[in-house]
Amino acid sequence: MTALLAPYPIGTSGQPWGESEKAAWLARQSWQRSYETDVLDAIERLRSRFDVSEYGRLNYVPASYPLLAIRSRDWRDDLPTMLVTGGVHGYETSGVHGALRFAEQHAADYSGQANILIAPCVSPWAYERIQRWNPHAIDPNRSFRADSPAGESAALLALIAPLHGRILMHIDLHETTDTDETEFRLALAARDGVAFEPGEIPDGFYLVDDTENPQPAFQHAVLAAVAKVTHIEPADAKDEIIGSPVVAPGVIRYPLVKLGLCAGISGARYTTTTEVYPDSPRATPEQCVAAQVAAVRAAVDYALANAV
Question: What is the pTM of this model?
Answer without folding.
Answer: 0.97
